């Protein structure tokens, strides 16, 4: 591959590690996902990761912006090259979410939960998210970039006023700052373990790990379905990671993508 413009980080990860086998650190990029997609197109190996101190065009899901001020967040992207049918690829959003929730929970002692499909929450406020992007290659095969953003020491005033009430950071939640490199290492170790389990055993461990930290399952939700809004009860996940909802009209629907709102139980709001 073309030599990345970042510096290679030595994190002392165990030999045999796939995710994190190469970690390139940049001071500033537009988006770590875009940077890694470029490296992937020039031959970056599976497991290659890009981490940046800040992003000028951090991307969120559904075309949103991911606020990425310098030196306070985790902005990380990791490359995998699975041989899988395309319908399994959304599993990587769940794989990343489950691994990051587990790693952050253990490293900080905070409760970190997941809102389907990709939000990391602490007490229902958004702490981070996952943006998975897929590239299909002409020669066959796919590259999947798992992009992970976590508000680590982000001060509340860094968030735009409209998201401030629903956003949080690990520092805000715990009342103390965290070392970004320590958390990066914890996240990479957990991602690697989850990916190894996925390669050995298929989707089962990914779904189990996601369920373990899920806040969405078993509760009332509002979901946008191709322009229509439905409310109902989140029943569970399908084998490929989609959300199964029983609507108030008694229909069972499979939600492929979109925004889920957690409602208070019994709420008809
Ligand atoms: C979301 O919740 O909408 C997903 C946010 C994902 C943000 C991360 S930060 C690192 C990576 N690079 C990006 O441009 N986006 C992801």
Give, in order, the helices and strands: EEHEEHEEEEHHHEEEEE
Number of strands: 13
- Counting copies of identical and different chains, the oligomeric state is single chain
Distance between the termini: 53 Å
Q: What is Rg? A: 18 Å
Bound small-molecule species: biotin
Biggest sheet strand line-up: 1-2-3-4-8-7-6-5
Question: Average pLDDT, to the nearest integer?
Answer: 93
The helicity comes to: 10-25%
| Uncertain regions spanning at least 5 consecutive residues | none
Major beta sheet, specifics?
A: 8 strands, mixed
Helix-and-strand structural type? alpha+beta
- Determine the strand fraction and express it as a percent band: 25-35%
**Morphology:** globular
Contiguous helical run count: 5
Notes on the protein architecture:
The chain is an alpha+beta fold and 269 residues long. 24% of the residues lie in helices and 31% in strands. The chain contains 5 helices and 13 strands. Helix 2 (91-108) crosses helix 5 (204-212) and helix 4 (180-201) packs across helix 5. The site of biotin (BTN) has 21 residues, from helix 1, strand 4, strand 7 and strand 8.
Question: What is the strand and helix layout of this fold?
Answer:
Layout: E1 7-8, E2 22-29, H1 32-41, E3 48-55, E4 73-80, H2 91-108, E5 113-115, E6 119-122, E7 125-136, E8 142-151, H3 170-174, H4 180-201, H5 204-212, E9 220-225, E10 228-237, E11 243-247, E12 252-255, E13 260-262
Parallel strand pairs: 2-3
Antiparallel strand pairs: 1-2, 3-4, 4-8, 5-6, 6-7, 7-8, 9-10, 9-13, 10-11, 11-12
Bound molecules: biotin.
Biotin is lined by residues 31-33, 55, 58-61, 64, 66, 75-77, 118-119, 129-131, 147-149.
């Amino acid at each position: 591959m073309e030599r990345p413009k970042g510096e290679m980080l030595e994190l002392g990860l165990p030999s045999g590690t796939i995710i994190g086998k190469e970690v390139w650190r940049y001071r500033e990029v537009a988006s770590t996902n875009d940077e890694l997609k470029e490296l992937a197109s020039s031959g970056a190996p599976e497991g290659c990761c890009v981490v940046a101190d800040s992003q000028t065009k951090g991307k969120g899901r559904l075309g949103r912006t991911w606020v990425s001020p310098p030196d306070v967040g985790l902005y990380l992207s990791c490359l995998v090259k699975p041989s899988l049918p395309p319908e399994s690829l959304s599993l990587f959003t769940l794989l990343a979410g489950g691994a990051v929730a587990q790693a952050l929970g253990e490293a900080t002692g905070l409760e970190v939960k997941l809102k389907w499909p990709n939000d990391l929450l602490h007490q229902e406020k958004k702490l981070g998210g996952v943006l998975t992007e897929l590239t299909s290659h002409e020669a066959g095969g796919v590259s999947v970039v798992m992009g992970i953003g976590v508000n680590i020491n982000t001060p509340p005033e860094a968030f735009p006023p409209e998201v401030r009430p629903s956003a949080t950071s690990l520092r805000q939640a715990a009342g103390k700052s965290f070392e970004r490199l320590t958390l990066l290492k914890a996240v990479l170790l957990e991602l690697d373990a989850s990916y190894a389990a996925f390669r050995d055993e298929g989707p089962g461990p990914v779904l189990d790990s996601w369920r373990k930290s899920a806040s969405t399952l078993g509760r009332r939700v509002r979901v946008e379905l191709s322009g229509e809004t439905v409310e109902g009860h989140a029943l569970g996940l399908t084998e490929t990671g989609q959300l199964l909802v029983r609507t108030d009209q008694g229909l069972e629907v499979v939600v492929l993508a979109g925004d889920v709102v957690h409602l208070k139980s019994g709420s008809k709001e």
